[in-house]
Specification:
- This is Glutamine transport system permease protein GlnP.
- It is a multi-pass membrane protein.
- The structure is a single chain.
- By secondary structure, the protein is mainly α.
- The protein has 9 helices and no strands.
């Protein structure tokens, strides 16, 4: 079998454009997922029973169903209900954000529960409300502890974002498919796609390692 390096060189700019779209989808999805996850994670710890149950139902449903099915629900099923077509980009970001939010919620919940209960009691004894204690005392400490799992979630979403190619959105995987359909260079293109994904995940892993070292918590203090 002949390995066509020229095909890789010619296709690389297009694949890099697709990689840029992949990073954009991932960054937006995880950013929205952080907001969703933070509130849902705190709702999971709420003493208000309906709030706690609704948060648990959301997390269990999203974590218990494949992201691909969630994308189909947003892009194909939801327009039937609302009577209006949804843009592929909006559908991709919405599905990935909702999916990420469920996993981030559990990360936040675990992070908050890892903080000594005395911290909350100390904040309340100083006259701070529950919300103020969470904002100024609990969450800053919890955030430092959840940096590694948040990094893992970013990497997982980076790879899972390839699923949005099924609705025709041209991220990295879809760009690879289109190039292969035109050139029939399956081996060269898929190896290139795999290399770009590997490069992105390694970069994120190194960044997470740096942040973890920078904000490392010394439990003795």
């Amino acid at each position: 079998m002949n390995f066509d390096f020229n095909l890789i060189i010619q296709s690389f700019p297009l694949l890099l454009m697709g990689a840029g779209v992949t990073v954009q989808i991932t960054a937006l999805s995880v950013s929205f997922g952080l907001l969703i996850g933070m509130f849902v994670g705190m709702a999971r710890l709420s003493v208000v029973w309906p709030v706690k149950v609704l948060a648990a139902v959301y997390v269990d449903f999203i974590r218990g169903t494949p992201l691909l099915v969630q994308i189909f629900l947003i892009y194909f099923a939801l327009p039937i209900v609302v009577g209006q077509r949804i843009d592929p980009f909006i559908a991709a970001i919405t599905a990935c954000s909702i999916n990420s939010g469920a996993y981030v919620a559990e990360i936040f919940r675990a992070g908050i529960q890892s903080i000594d209960k005395g911290q909350m009691e100390a904040g309340r004894s100083l006259g701070m409300t529950w919300a103020q204690t969470m904002q100024y005392i609990i969450l800053p400490q919890a955030f430092k502890r959840i940096i590694p799992p948040l990094g893992n979630e970013f990497i997982a979403m980076l790879k899972d974002s390839s699923l949005v190619s099924v609705i025709g959105f041209e991220e990295l995987t879809r760009r690879g498919q289109l190039i292969i359909a035109r050139t029939y260079g399956s081996f060269e293109i898929w190896m290139s796609v795999a290399f770009i994904y590997l490069l992105m995940t390694l970069t994120i892993s190194r960044l997470v390692d740096y942040l973890e070292r920078r904000y490392k918590i010394d439990d003795k203090h």
